[in-house]
Amino acid sequence: LDFDDHGQMFITACVIPHLWHVIPGGIYHRQGGSHINPYVFDDIKTIANHSHRSAHGGARIYLADEFPREYRNRIFMANLHEHDVITDILEPSGSGFIGHHGDEPLSAHDNAWVGFSMEIGPDGAAYVLDWHDRDICGDAIHDKDTGRIYRLAPKGLQGKQGINLAAQTDLELVGLLTHRNDWYSRRARVLLQHRAAAGQLDAAVPEKLWELFAQTKTSAHQLRALWALHITQNLPADRLLPLLDHAEPYIRGWAIQLLGEDHAYSPAALAKFTAMAEKDSSPIVRLYLAAALQRMNMAERWPIAQNLVAHAEDAADHNLPKMLWFGIEPMVEADASRAMALATHSRIPRLVPYIARRAIAARQLEPVAATLLSNTDLALRLQLLEGVRDGLKSLGRNVITKPKNWDDALAALDATKDAKLSDFTAQIGQLFGDTRAAAAQLAVLKEPAAPIERRRQILTAFARDAYAAALPVVLSLLDEPAVRRDAIRALASFDDPQVAATLINRYARLSAAEKSEVVSALSARRSTASALVAELKKNTIPKTDVTAFDARQLYRVLGPSFVEFWGPITQLASDKQADMAKYKAMLTDAVLAKANTGHGRAIFERTCVACHMLYGAGGIVGPDLTGSNRANLDYILSQILNPSEVMQECYQLVIVTTRDGRTLSGTVAAEDNQQLTLRLVGQDSIVTKSEILSREKSPISMMPEGLLNTLKDDEVRDLIAYLRTTQQVPLEKQ
Description:
- The protein is α+β, with helices and mostly antiparallel strands.
- Among the domains are: 2-152, no CATH class; 506-566, no CATH class.
- Strands 4, 5, 6, 7 and 8 form a 5-stranded antiparallel beta sheet that branches.
- α3 runs antiparallel to α4 (219-231), α4 (219-231) runs parallel beside α6 and α26 packs antiparallel against α29.
């Protein structure tokens, strides 16, 4: 991580997304797993507008001037997979930044080069630490004595020796704060802080720092003085308050932040924050105010939040809507009625459904219904209803009853005759268990001319509740190609003999993708799994249609009887080692050079794309492969042949058995007090916790073993060659 001239924090991450602007109190995109707070609803994403095959190590923003002018304020990173140093350009945008790809000022041309730490030196050169090992992921150390440090500098730039800042006086250190190389100012501040903590700081330092703040010409240098005053305990609140009117946004912003370092604000500061929240023209300042909400008690937040949510110009900002939500979220449960008033005042559309959804989660339905009744603005009502629907989905059917004033609100909404409002009220009525609403939803589901996404939403809701009256309609949807795969998935929720019989009868006429959905659906419960295995034994459904993942699922559902038919589900360690040796011997550079990467892409889309993303397309069950170490054959084979050997916890398999007899296997995508969302192959499945009979976490990966055993040698060759490409290739024509 590193900081720019204005104290903005940036981090690089391995693998991708790779670049983030970090804000105090921010909650950021996770590669896997779920957030600790189930009411985050959405998180802050990367600022990078590009991706590439790389794992990023180290981060230093160039704040010296020995390099050409265009490099100042760029962030330097080492690239483990491409064995070079890369830069990104940090462009200010709204309250934050956009990260554009810069260039590659250094290329090692050495496959063992592993750069993972950067530094800018006192000479203005960039330094990169090279771990230098054949195993770039660090799972093993092959070369213990080959580490090195590289210096990247303009030709002729001399190094610095004999530097000893600790020998300088306090006032000399103050003079270094405006040095053209930030290396000096950072270390000067550390020394000043150390001396202040030891009670040894020159009494003249505070005055000199304020003098520097007043006389320096740039906000960056003013901030260096301000930070030095803060860390030496010489920045009282009465000196900070006037800075809230400073001309520079980052000075105002840092005054806001520093006033709250002890989580205690004076009435004068809070009054000024409230005024700034309404009138300050800078999104940077509004971001500092939004971040400050989390440092305040609930009563202090309301007037500031009220003014911040009124800025329509912030609706599309990268940070502000989410940072505002992170500050507002606990306020909703504390006072739902006041939160609904905040929603009606908001000009940031995304906040309105979030507030309603959080109120539903807190079982505060009456204030939401009252707001729907008292406000006639169509856009507001639609946003509120979106939140009500999503909140009720989280609670599950029959977990909550409709509030006393819901019928009055429903009557007012229906009186408008607006189609969108009626659509929402029908969905919500279904979630409340209203039989008339369910019948209306069934009518829409039956109608081929109805919007396809609307029908899919209804189908998902009926499947989640296993609504028996919907089964005939769901079966009829197998005749409609546009929703056939959705219908197959939904049928897994119904414990009825018709399901297996119907799917097996139609199996031969289905597409490959639809057959895959059928195998997954039939593998979900014992009765349908037994029917599937009976067809496998007769070869009316070929064994080749059952993936390694499906086989593992069938073993969980049917137990040892399935292994007797299928054979071993897991491999011995010796078998994995033998496979590793076999494929390494087979997949030479000469063999891979003859591969058909277009055919490899087709194999990837058949066997891998449901779980993994590559080049921006695919599933999110497993990691995005775009930035992984795909150029390394050992890495690819080890990940495929032994996926559980090195595994993040978020990719561990969770197995849930439901009271209606289903066995679901996936990773946890989200969880709150009412429900669990499992990320399965091809879809997410929401399970109400009251319906869970058992739940266990397996020490093995979601990715099954034996994937390559299902492929012919030329298919393995083409798949591996495709995985090693550096850009997307055309799909082989069938």
